Amino acid sequence: MSTIKDKVALITGASSGIGRSTAEAFAAKGAKVVVAARRKDELDSLVESIENMGGQASAIKTDVSNAKSVEQMVEHTMDVFGRLDYAVNNAGIEGNFGAITDLSEEDWDNVMNINLKGIFLSMKYEARAMIKLGNGGSIVNIGSVNSFLGFPTGSAYVTSKHGLIGLTSSVSAELAPQGIRVNLLCPGVTDTPMHRRLRGIVGDELYDQGLLPTVHLRRAGLPEEMAKSILFLCSDESSYITGSTLTVDGGLTLTM
Ligand SMILES: NC(=O)c1ccc[n+]([C@@H]2O[C@H](COP(=O)([O-])OP(=O)(O)OC[C@H]3O[C@@H](n4cnc5c(N)ncnc54)[C@H](OP(=O)(O)O)[C@@H]3O)[C@@H](O)[C@H]2O)c1
């Protein structure tokens, strides 16, 4: 993956979990990274740790559901590092779960605004910058096994993640002529703060005896394992992959 060295990667949702590990993985390969999320203190500590390892990073407080904030995130990337080669649109929330008869309009909108509109807005400004630069690029959106699978009470989250398949394949077709590839990485159960919150809701017994046995590898994935696959989709190693989904779930999707 030598193509990554000295390139610029923008990662949303980098204050935690998969996004944080992805930022660290890009930095370890010699990329300059811009890390975005709402919790600036978490981003600042990530930047400090990347710089302590000899890398280059910059933080920008961002709310991906807000167009102005997303525009500023991309402007910041251009101001600080002068280019944009890779964008990882990872920011997402699980939101509140609820039966269709009870789910509030506010809960629905909150999940859609961050998980689906947030990726529309991110790609809009990232693509403008990449097209203007004329160097091509690679965008990786983060879906989920719930881009394919529903579950009771999960209609908002599941719908937002299903929508990313259509969004990703449409934008891939639009941007291919400019040399920009767009893919959707779909993680399975991954050991992050989001996952630990969900485990708390499901309960240890159902998690250990109901969910984990459906994973062929019988364990949760690590955020570092997601990061490796994201780097693959960004690098030239995946030069003929666009408009595609890559499921990284230890075998879960084929079992359920
Ligand atoms: N963990 C899993 O098992 C799993 C499985 C499938 C898919 N995924 C997907 O993977 C992605 C990362 O999840 P994770 O497990 O790493 O969760 P996480 O640890 O909760 O991290 C989520 C990240 O998204 C950021 N974020 C949330 N709302 C945002 C907003 N409005 N603007 C900017 N950033 C925002 C959070 O930062 P702030 O709070 O600081 O804004 C945080 O950095 C999500 O899209 C999730 O749906 C996770």
Structure characterization notes:
With 256 residues, this protein is α/β, with parallel strands linked by helices. It has a single domain (2-191, 223-250), classed as NAD(P)-binding Rossmann-like Domain (Rossmann fold, 3-Layer(aba) Sandwich), CATH 3.40.50. Helix content is 48%, strand content 15%. A seven-stranded parallel sheet has the order 3-2-1-4-5-6-7, with helices on both faces. Strand 1 (8-12), helix 1 and strand 2 form a beta-alpha-beta unit. The radius of gyration is 17 Å and the shape is globular. The two termini are 34 Å apart. The model has no long low-confidence stretch (mean pLDDT 96). The structure holds NADP nicotinamide-adenine-dinucleotide phosphate. NADP nicotinamide-adenine-dinucleotide phosphate (NAP) is lined by residues 12-19, 37-39, 42, 62-65, 90-93, 114, 142, 144, 187, 189-190, 192-195.
Task: Write a brief caption for the model.
One of its GO terms (molecular function) is glucose 1-dehydrogenase [NAD(P)+] activity. By secondary structure, the chain is α/β, with parallel strands linked by helices. The chain has helices spanning 17-28, 40-52, 67-81, 105-133, 155-175, 193-202, 204-211, 223-234, 252-255; strands at 8-12, 32-37, 56-61, 86-89, 137-142, 180-187, 245-248.
